[in-house]
TrEMBL record:
It is a multi-pass membrane protein. It comes from Chitinophaga skermanii. It is found in: Cell inner membrane; Cell membrane. GO terms for biological process: protein insertion into membrane; protein transport. Residues 363-557 form the Membrane insertase YidC/Oxa/ALB C-terminal domain. Interacts with the Sec translocase complex via SecD. Specifically interacts with transmembrane segments of nascent integral membrane proteins during membrane integration. It comes from the Bacteria. PANTHER family: CYTOCHROME C OXIDASE ASSEMBLY PROTEIN COX18, MITOCHONDRIAL (PTHR12428:SF65), OXA1 (PTHR12428). Residues 581-605 have a biased composition (Basic and acidic residues). One of its GO terms (cellular component) is plasma membrane. Its main location: membrane. This is Membrane protein insertase YidC.
């Protein structure tokens, strides 16, 4: 390898290291963000605090004061809480007449990391309701008692009555078999004189509790995504922002955890705007909290209706894509400078993964076959890199002779080395192409495996859950820059990386200390990062290293004929170099640089 090739590889490695460290540092950012959340705690609390029901000294209800506080909704201020269940094979939703909204949402086909029922909503923080102006204040319907007006196996209707029976607010929920999507329609009948303005605020509070083994990783993946009416998608992580105001029309807002999400989707007409406040509590098993105000466009009609869909379910790519609203974009398949790898995941990795999982139940075997498929895909380029390495090996004695001849004159050495490459018909960058091709795939896998819900709680060998780190020993305390456990797949990945580096040591400039030891230092640098990543990912990298080692040994031992390559190089030298326009320009630039250096030396004398 020449100096330019080495510089190129260093840049590639630097990009990879920077990307991995960037991802790792998000956890530290989350911790710092939590420390300053107290200062904005008031923003994340419900703004409307309903006063206790007014009572007389005798213990009876003060109807006069009740009417002044609740206006037309005074009759709904008191009541007894009752629940109703709506479910299919995937969801079990328990509704409460207080607020006329879900009190709990259970995903029946999933469990938490400790095998308990998995709830996407449960607890008093989770609530939703319209904010209605009453006597110069704001009344939240989440604090009022609705009447169950209709119930069936597939649908529930709650009605919030007023003093006038012809004026009411109605919530209609409909669930369909085999779907995580719930249809939710808000009807406001005869309310045009009670509601002012062109928007109707709808408050939606949501809390995610711990569901996975590593709560820090869950918090790092706790995000709010949203899609504007113009189909532009954006998001923010709860650990990095606490408030977002969306002034333009919004199609949907999704609060996403690592493997699950709850999404509000406007159907016929988009939300007019949205205001989102988020918070991560200091301690406990709460992953994150989001308090969102969705402003519904209100036309003051006598029979106003706003249909929505609520998605309660997994971050499963195929499921989310089936809705046709770009909801699958909430799955982190590639972002930042490596945004393009999401297309590798969408067009290659996910289809192959889904195909294999269609007839293979063991996901460890699927990862093995997926790895073999990827290596076969890039095998032509891999073979060319080994041929290029063999050519460089044949030329090594001549390159060493040139290096000894020119000593510290790197400019002169570079020019003569380029002449040698051209005369021998060797491309010095031929061995770098597979590295360039494998980097996007490496990053694609880095995004795909940790976000693939199919791997959640799937075991293989000693790993009990391929979606999180495998642990063969827990320290009971945290080791700086490493963690509190030992991941065997990460250890195996590191060992095979070092073996591969040792095997390829002849391809780097051994006279340069940096390039001589960098291939050995790099795997050690990544050890602490990968120790806490998904076992599926580290198993893939380990397996890919093993295949690389075997391929290099087989190809160089039994496929590549070094004597034949040597003869071909000698034939190319006899024919003379074929100069391309690029090589001519490069040689001209090198000559100019050499002339400038000589003139500078003369000037000093």
């Amino acid at each position: 390898m020449d100096r330019n090739t080495i510089i190129g590889l260093v840049c590639i490695i630097g990009l990879a290291v920077g990307y991995f460290f960037y991802q790792s540092n998000q956890q530290q950012t989350a911790q710092l963000e939590k420390q300053r959340q107290d200062s904005i705690a008031n923003l994340n609390k419900p703004k409307e605090q309903i006063a206790p029901v007014a009572t007389l000294p005798s213990g009876g209800i003060d109807s006069t004061k009740l009417n002044s506080e609740y206006g037309a909704f005074a009759a709904a201020a008191t009541g007894t809480e009752q629940t109703q269940v709506l479910e299919n094979d995937d969801l079990k939703i328990t509704f409460s007449n207080k607020g006329g909204a879900p009190a709990s949402v259970e995903l029946k086909k999933y469990k938490t990391y400790d095998k308990k029922p998995l709830f996407l909503e449960q607890g008093s923080f989770n609530r939703m309701g319209l904010k209605i102006p009453v006597n110069n204040s704001s009344l939240n319907t989440a604090d009022l008692y609705f009447t169950l007006s209709n119930a069936s196996d597939k649908s529930i209707t709650y009605r919030l009555n007023t003093i006038d029976p012809s004026k009411y607010i109605e919530y209609v929920y409909t669930i369909t078999p085999g779907s995580y999507m719930v249809n939710f329609t808000i009807n406001a009948v005869g309310m045009q004189n009670l509601i002012a303005g062109n928007t109707l605020p709808f408050q939606w509070n949501l809390q995610f509790d711990k569901q996975e083994q590593d709560i820090n990783n869950e918090r790092m993946n706790n995000q709010v995504h949203y899609r504007y009416a113009n189909e532009k998608h954006d998001y923010f992580t709860l650990s990095s922002k606490n408030h977002e105001k969306l002034e333009d029309r919004v199609n949907w807002v999704s609060v996403k955890q690592q493997f699950f999400n709850v999404t509000m989707v406007a159907k016929k007409e988009n939300f007019a705007s949205a205001d989102i406040n988020t918070k991560i509590p200091e301690s406990g098993n709460i992953v994150g909290q989001a308090m969102t105000t969705l402003n519904l466009p209100y036309d003051h009609s006598a029979a106003y209706s706003f249909p929505m869909d609520i998605y309660y379910g997994p971050n499963h790519f195929k499921t989310l894509k089936s809705f046709g609203i770009d909801l699958e974009s909430i799955i982190p398949l590639g972002s930042g400078i490596f945004f393009f790898v999401k297309y590798i995941n969408k067009w290659i990795i996910i289809p192959v993964f889904n195909f294999l999982s269609g007839f293979i139940s063991n996901f460890g075997v699927i990862i093995i076959l997926l790895t073999v498929f990827i290596r076969l895909l890039i095998s032509p380029f891999t073979y060319q890199s080994y041929v290029s390495a063999a050519k460089m090996k044949v030329l090594k004695p001549e390159i060493d002779a040139l290096r000894a001849k020119f000593g510290d004159d790197q400019q002169g050495f570079g020019m003569e080395q380029m002449k040698l490459f051209r005369s021998a018909g060797v491309n010095p960058l031929g061995g770098c192409l597979p590295a360039l091709l494998q980097l996007p795939i490496l990053v694609a896998m880095y995004s795909f495996f940790p976000s693939s819900i199919e791997l959640r709680q799937e075991s293989f060998l000693w790993a009990t859950d391929l979606s999180t780190y495998d642990s063969i020993y827990n320290f009971g305390f945290n080791v700086p820059f490493y963690g509190n456990h030992i991941s065997l797949f990460t250890i195996l990945m590191t060992i095979t990386s070092l073996i591969l580096a040792f095997y390829n040591r002849g391809m780097t400039d051994q006279s340069n200390p940096v390039m001589k030891y960098m291939p050995f230092v790099f795997p050690i640098m990544l050890l602490g990062i990968f120790n806490k990543l998904a076992a599926a990912l580290t198993f893939y990298y380990f397996l890919s290293n093993v295949i690389s080692i075997l391929l290099q040994w087989v190809i160089q031992k039994f496929v590549i004929n070094h004597d034949k390559i040597h003869l071909q190089i000698q034939e190319n030298k006899k024919k003379g170099p074929k100069k391309s326009k690029w090589s001519e320009r490069l040689e001209e630039m090198q000559k100019r640089q050499q002339e400038m250096q000589e003139q500078a030396k003369k000037g000093k004398k």
